[in-house]
Write a sequence for this structure.
């Protein structure tokens, strides 16, 4: 949704406050006293890096969109996907005559010029069809021109950009000429767009716009829609689309933006829950793209580089197929000092060479890379197509870790030090991988650096991370991987109850020796907990915890002791008992984007009256809480909620129900609880 200088000007007041907090010149960094423990676990496999992973946005107001210098810089940064014609401009852009009524179109930014830039960079295009002021026929003609007339083989097409911002929920920044601006109407027209576009080229992939779980207007139902935006769009358009398109601007200070990366696993989990629940049969075919990301404070300085590397890694390891930075060039914003560096408030990762209106401050020369560009280059060094992300973690919130295992057996580890004031020594422990004694290849991006320093140094198990830095370590294995079994296929879960699940997977292919058994592991943070082993390709796990989320992998071990790579991950959630002496119905209503009216209805299914009761549950995240409540006494400690009766509802007769209500609040993805305990008994849910 971010547009050039006009948008930056609208945000200037907010940015000034945010940047002022982050803009104190730091003292020389000192080392923290205690080393950070880093765990890298190759038994806990995550998603595989796709060939569309690293993306950026191009915009038709950028006169440098098609220059060789710009394309070469993007190629050197490893850009694999480029989005066009630019955020909200997409909903006013008409490709045939290359116009955007009400906006500025720079010379040399037409579609053919964009495609030449894409090809020079060695990337793939993602194109936004005009929903706001366009038609399905116009979009279909664009597909015909791109793929039939010109043979560009443009695979990915999104219908519109941030169309929930059309005034349907109050705020209006996105153009929408349709009299009906509801989520229902958007979904109906997505179906028409998809049908028209695929009639021209059935091989293309069509995407629909969704909201980020936990961000406005997630959870809000407006007008006559049957539910919130995501539910409504998926229920109608789900069978017709191939992917969904989400944006995320976490906002806040630099420290707040960096901390909110922790929201991503729950956000992508909720998106997949919504797809499974509302998008119809075979919903797991629908991909997820995050096509706009940036920060408020430190856009051209180190906070943006740290955020980019951390969020790209977090989303890709969760299975998102492309992550795209907003923007290549954008223009001057509010100038501030952030962590001792001049920040130009520019959403672009390359300098536009602009100056403030009074000429008092100018950016460096055109196309000078800003910090997020170097962050993207670090991602190129870290995660390449075909690598498999594996679980990594630390015991220090200001230091995060990500890791990938490569086809040649190498392991790459990305370490992010979000502390602007302190170097952090780290010790690294490896599970399922033994590094060689050869010094690893180390790449480092430090605060204020104009490039990445790379060399061979140190050991695989310890080093010191400079304050506000990115560090990538590439390690060779100590032994050979020749002869190991192939990777087991994608596991699936069936028969999931509150306490058990059956996990099944396609067999691995033997390598140098026959396969002896399969081992099933559960992720417990960055540590793997073995759930069991079997000679078959199916395993039933018992003794699970009701209302809990599990991520598991399968590994094959042969008779010589060689172990395969980890299978792709499987995530499933246990529920509540099918039958119990009690039933709890948990309700939400009147969601306003960061809170809602909640309720619990407790039914006595037993054979005796209940005299006095205590209801407990645990929130799935740390950013959910009970703000206030009624008809009961409400207490929350950490994530644990405890509800006790008033004098009026202490007694629950056999077959009777008592109710209590509360105001719920959340500041991130709102993953609702699914297991409740009454007087020590796990209840059924209704």
């Amino acid at each position: 949704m971010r547009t050039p200088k006009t948008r930056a000007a609208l945000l200037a007041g907010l940015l000034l406050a945010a940047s002022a907090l982050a803009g104190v010149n730091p003292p020389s960094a000192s080392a923290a006293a205690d080393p950070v423990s880093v765990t890298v676990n190759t038994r806990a496999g995550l998603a595989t890096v796709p060939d569309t992973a690293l993306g950026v946005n191009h915009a038709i107001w950028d006169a440098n969109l098609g220059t060789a210098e710009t394309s070469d810089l993007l190629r050197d940064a490893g850009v694999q996907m480029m989005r066009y014609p630019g955020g909200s401009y997409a909903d006013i852009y008409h490709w045939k005559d290359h116009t955007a009524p009400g906006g500025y179109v720079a010379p040399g930014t037409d579609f053919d010029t964009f495609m030449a830039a894409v090809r020079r960079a060695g990337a793939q295009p993602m194109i936004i069809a005009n929903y706001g002021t366009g038609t399905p026929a116009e979009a279909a003609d664009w597909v015909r021109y791109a793929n039939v007339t010109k043979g560009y083989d443009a695979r990915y097409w999104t219908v519109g950009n941030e169309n929930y911002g059309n005034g349907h929920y109050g705020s209006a920044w996105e153009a929408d000429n349709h009299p009906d601006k509801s989520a229902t109407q958007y979904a109906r027209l997505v179906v028409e767009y998809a049908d028209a576009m695929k009639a021209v080229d059935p091989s293309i992939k069509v995407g629909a716009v969704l909201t980020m779980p936990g961000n406005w207007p997630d959870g809000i139902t407006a007008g006559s829609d049957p539910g919130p935006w995501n539910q409504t769009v998926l229920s109608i358009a789900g069978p017709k689309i191939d992917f969904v398109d989400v944006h995320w601007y976490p906002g806040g200070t630099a420290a707040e933006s960096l901390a909110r990366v922790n929201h991503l696993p729950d956000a992508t989990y909720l998106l997949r829950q919504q797809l499974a629940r509302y998008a119809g049969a075979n919903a797991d075919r629908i991909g997820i793209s995050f096509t706009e990301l940036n920060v408020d404070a430190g856009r051209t300085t180190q906070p943006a580089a740290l955020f980019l590397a951390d969020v790209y890694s977090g989303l890709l390891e969760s299975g998102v197929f492309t992550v795209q930075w907003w923007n290549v060039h954008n223009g001057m914003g509010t100038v501030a000092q952030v962590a001792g560096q001049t920040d130009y408030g520019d959403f672009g990762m390359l300098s536009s060479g602009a100056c403030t209106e009074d000429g008092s401050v100018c950016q460096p020369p055109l196309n000078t890379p800003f910090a997020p560009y170097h962050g993207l280059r670090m991602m190129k060094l870290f995660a390449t197509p075909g690598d498999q992300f594996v679980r990594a973690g630390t015991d220090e919130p200001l230091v995060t870790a990500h890791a990938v295992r490569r086809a040649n057996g190498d392991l790459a580890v990305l370490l992010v030090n979000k502390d602007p004031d302190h170097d952090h020594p780290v010790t690294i422990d490896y599970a399922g991988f033994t590094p060689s004694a050869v010094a690893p290849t180390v790449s480092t991006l430090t605060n204020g650096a104009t490039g990445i320093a790379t060399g061979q140094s140190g050991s695989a198990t310890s080093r010191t991370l400079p304050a506000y830095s990115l560090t990538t370590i590439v390690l060779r294995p100590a032994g050979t991987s020749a002869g190991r079994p192939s990777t087991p296929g994608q596991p699936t879960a069936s028969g999931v109850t509150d306490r058990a699940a059956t996990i099944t997977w396609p067999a691995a292919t033997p390598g140098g020796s026959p396969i002896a058994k399969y081992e099933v592991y559960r992720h417990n943070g960055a540590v793997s907990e073995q759930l069991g082993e079997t000679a078959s390709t199916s395993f039933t796990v018992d003794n699970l915890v009701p209302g809990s989320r599990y991520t598991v992998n399968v590994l094959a071990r042969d008779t010589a002791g060689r172990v395969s790579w980890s299978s792709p991950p499987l995530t499933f959630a246990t529920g509540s008992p099918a039958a119990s002496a009690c039933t709890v119905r948990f309700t939400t209503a009147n969601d306003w984007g960061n809170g809602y009216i909640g309720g619990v209805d407790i039914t006595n299914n037993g054979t005796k009256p209940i005299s006095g009761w205590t209801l407990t549950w645990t929130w799935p995240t740390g950013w959910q809480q009970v703000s206030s409540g009624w008809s009961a006494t409400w207490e929350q400690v950490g994530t644990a909620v405890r509800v006790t009766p008033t004098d009026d509802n202490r007694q629950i007769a056999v077959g009777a129900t008592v109710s209590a209500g509360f105001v719920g609040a959340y500041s991130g993805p709102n993953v609702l609880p699914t297991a409740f305990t009454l007087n020590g008994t796990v209840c059924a849910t209704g």
In short: The two ends are 40 Å apart (CA to CA). The chain has ten helices and 39 strands. Confidence is low (pLDDT under 50) at residues 3-27. The longest helix spans residues 5-22.
